[in-house]
Amino acid sequence: MAEGFVAIVGAGPGAADLLTLRALDRLQRADVVVHDRLIDASVLALIPATARRIYVGKASGDHAVPQEGIHELLVAAARTGQRVVRLKGGDPFIFGRGGEEVQALVAAGVAFEVVPGVTAASGCAAAAGIPLTHRELASSCVFLPGHLAEGKSDDDGDQQPDWAALARPGQTRVFYMGVARLPLIAQALIAQGLPATTPAAIVRDGTRSTQQVWAMPLARLVQAAPAYGPQPGLLIISETCRLSPDYAD
Predict the structure, then answer these.
(1) Closest by CA position to 130, among listed 215, 34, 229
(2) Which among 4, 24, 139, 195 would be 20 to 30 A from 248, CA to CA?
(3) What CATH number matches the domain at 5-115, 3.40.1010.10, 1.10.10.10, 3.40.30.10, 3.30.540.10?
(4) Per-position DSSP letters for 164-208, written without gaps between them
């Protein structure tokens, strides 16, 4: 990693040993690390003591630094000749706004690379024993942001999902940050014909030692789901959830 360079690095879904070798290398050579809220402590512990850490975490309604401010931080640090790591949970290009950061770096003429990471969908599903695809149960998989279930487009212009298409059989639906909107998501899908008995699961703190899994028919999951909290949670709705060892009819 040359001087005056930004590496946009996916930290994976949690556990440090799910980092790629390239991600670890970039971390260990960083002068500055700009990191998100959901980076596991075991990953942060790998940052050199000499590196400057800048926290830019986001929670619902609480952004430590606006996205435009993050762009400015990356550009300014790189222009002083520093090796910058933008450390993001999961994969930078899956609901990580990594694409926007790349656009800002290109516009500023700053050299960069993107280091892929294990995204929450594949990492958490695998840790919970839930295949995202299966020849007999799900031939496709869709990733969605849970906040779109609230019935309006968000500030970034994201549009409402096609609930009728999502209710069709033979697919896996993965909602990032979908736990708080589970009742709305279930209502929208069931209204379009998805059986209320469709297997579903919530995976909280996936791949971590604190991982918890709730797997059961969708209608029951709405009633049994944990209250929304600060821990990251993933909602999966698919016949493949039935294969989880935690599934309970």
Answers:
(1) 215
(2) 139
(3) 3.40.1010.10
(4) HHHTSSSEEEEEET-STTHHHHHHHHHHTT--TT-EEEEEESTTS
By annotation, the residues acting in catalysis are 36, 58
98-108 and 67-79 are packed helices; what angle lies between their axes, rounded to 10 degrees? 40
> For 142-188, how does the pLDDT look when each residue is reduced to its tens digit (9 = 90+)?
999 988 767 655 445 557 889 999 999 999 999 998 888 999 999 99
Q: What local confidence, expressed as pLDDT, does residue 158 receive?
A: 57
d(CA 123, CA 13) in angstroms, rounded, equals: 6
Distance CA 155, CA 135 (A): 38
Longest dimension (CA), the chain: 58
